[in-house]
Design a protein that fits this description.
This protein is of the alpha/beta class. The chain contains 11 helices and 16 strands.
């Protein structure tokens, strides 16, 4: 089960009643965030999930409305009693940006591990950005960049291990500086077959270890692997997140079969298309087209222009393309469960 909270839905600047776009996920007692603009710690406090369990913060890109709230959040996390490392993950340039922001929040009680994700060739560059990764908080496969290049830079990179059974993929967004979209995936192993375990005379005390994916050495010298008592891997949970981008084939591939897609809709009216093209953003119907083409279960719109006072007035433009669309709102929350049940509980 994956808990999802859309902390804020605003773009460019926080407004009364609308915080800047940020996402909070919780799984097995661990939490991660995506983006942290000014004031994000306030809706995070309102969500009531705590600060100490945050283990990773992802960044789509380094415009202020996506990262300028980081120093205050780090200080708040420090005051929560956290003393284990915090991973910061994002496109190239992360090291330089974070080092600058840390000037105003020194002496944190936990280590910062920054990981810069390689971009496929042809993606926009960040002038003066450092090229290498600053840490190893995420297990980034060094061959992933080449994989993307073989498909013209359009293929999402291979799975990157995060924690427990959660991993992520990312792909370049179509923005005017390096920007990434993410998919988070919780894998689910196959069902455990007690009859097989009994046939192999595996002691009951070893069943839970095999269910957890561990190899067991029995007292009689046999080595039993999980595949001997587990069925094929079952479908897991996939959630995707994207802000600040034009529609692109890379995104359709990355979002494929997501239970929930949270995607920017900077402008609601179809008449804003040219404006969106010029500023490298999306209108509602374009985000809905991505959701439809990727076969996702549900779409939440977010990252609204400050001029878009009531996103719900334009929701029809999206629902004509993809009916299961919702205008995201601050602190919109849901639980995603494994597909054997309902894909997602009703948002509350």
């Amino acid at each position: 089960m994956l808990d999802v909270c859309l902390l804020g839905t605003g773009g460019m600047m926080p407004l009364p009643g609308r915080w800047l776009t940020s996402l909070l996920l919780r799984y097995n007692g661990k939490m991660l965030m995506v983006d942290c603009g000014e004031g994000t710690q306030i809706p995070l406090k309102l969500a009531g999930w705590g600060f100490k369990p945050i283990d990773a913060i992802f960044f789509t890109h380094y415009h202020a409305d996506h990262i300028a709230g980081l120093p205050g959040l780090l200080l708040t996390i420090g005051n929560s009693g956290k003393d284990t490392p915090l991973d910061l993950i994002g496109p190239p340039g992360l090291t330089r940006v974070v080092q600058s922001l840390l000037v105003i929040c020194p002496a944190l009680p936990f280590d910062i591990r920054a990981t810069e994700l390689p971009l496929p060739r042809g993606a926009p560059s960040l002038r003066g950005a450092s090229g290498g990764a600053a840490g190893t908080g995420a297990n980034v496969d060094g061959e992933a960049e080449a994989d993307g290049e073989r498909d013209g830079g359009l293929a999402p990179l291979r799975d990157v291990a995060l924690f427990d059974s959660m991993s992520f993929q990312y792909a370049p967004a179509d923005h005017n500086i390096p920007c990434l979209a993410y998919s988070f995936h919780i894998r689910r192993q196959g069902a455990f077959y007690p009859a097989r375990a009994k046939e192999l005379n595996i002691p009951l005390k070893s069943w839970s270890l095999l269910q957890a994916g561990k190899t067991v050495e029995l007292d009689d010298g046999r080595s039993v692997t999980p595949d001997m008592v587990l069925g094929p891997e079952r479908r897991g949970i996939k959630l995707s997140y994207c802000t600040d981008s034009r529609p692109a084939p890379a995104l359709r591939r990355l979002f494929k079969d997501s239970a929930l897609l949270i995607c920017e809709g900077m402008y609601g009216d179809d008449g804003e298309r040219e404006n969106a093209i010029g500023k490298k953003h999306m209108i509602f119907s374009e985000a809905a087209g991505l959701a439809r083409d990727a076969g996702v279960g549900e779409l939440w719109l977010t990252h609204y222009s400050p001029a878009l006072q009531n996103p719900g007035e334009h929701i029809g433009a999206a629902r004509r393309v993809f009916p299961n669309t919702r205008a995201g709102s601050d602190l919109l929350t849901t639980k995603l469960i494994f597909p054997e049940g309902e894909g997602a509980d009703t948002a509350r």
